[in-house]
Amino acid sequence: MKSINFTGATSALPERWRKHPARTSLHGCDAIGAMKLLVFAGSTRAGSWNRKLAAEAVRLATAAGAQVTHLDLGDFDVPMYNADLEARGTPIDVIKLKQIFFDHPAWIVCTPEYNASYPALVKNTFDWISSPVKGHPVWSDGFRSTRGKVVGVLSASPGALGGLRSQSHLVPLLFNLMCWVVPVTFGLARAADAFDANGALAGEFARRQVQAVIDQTLWAASRLQLDARAPESIA
Ligand code: FNR
After folding, report:
1. Which of 235, 219, 206 has the alpha carbon at shortest distance from 110?
2. Residue 169 to residues 111, 172, 193, Cα–Cα distance (Å)
3. 0.90 exceeded by the pTM?
4. Is 50 touching ligand 1 by the criterion CB < 6 Å?
5. CA of 48 to the centre of ligand 1 (A)
6. Which of 157, 216, 226, 230 is buried most deeply by CB count within 10 Å?
7. Does residue 108 lie in a domain region?
8. What residue ranges of the chain have pLDDT lower than 50?
């Protein structure tokens, strides 16, 4: 009978497979440590629960070894989408946002819930960044900044459902943008009571749920990135 040496088989793998996240622990491994993660909230309100949740996600993901960019949509001058306006030239801050989203293989979005859906800010941001820039050398591809991204979805609301209905509308939008949505999500209910005086999540349960979404996002993004066989239409 032929014996198979599993240890020896490892060295025959190409370099990109040796660092495969499945071969290491979730925290502190090279592949995840190098992962660029974009974290943002769908609210620009000063006291926003979703901005607080995004800040917590930034802390947890940074501690997990990710290279985190904390994006505040309030820092960008983006009008309500209007095709006539766009025909006169895509706003420079939209181009900046396209580049930022493109540069990050993994995202965490923290969305509020308005009328059982996600707010106009989230829709407007995604509409602008997915709109092709006519004649542009790279941004004429409307899906360039969103295609193949791995997205972890969080929400927060003062209500009992934690914005879960917002997630149920946001996920199909993300699919349309050709994103891979992480199957574990979390909605922070009773958000007004969920943070301590320093703005950190007070409850261990909520923190663990947020951590789970972050871990799965980083893990899945690492796997997708390492799969060099992925066809152009996928990533
Ligand atoms: C809300 N809010 C809300 N909350 C919820 O749980 N379900 C809902 O359907 C709605 N609908 C809704 C509509 C509109 C127009 C507004 C302005 C608000 C309340 C919302 O969750 C609350 O204002 C949050 O605080 C908004 O998120 P940020 O800004 O705190 O992140």
Report:
1. 206
2. 11, 6, 25
3. no
4. yes
5. 10
6. 157
7. yes
8. 1-32
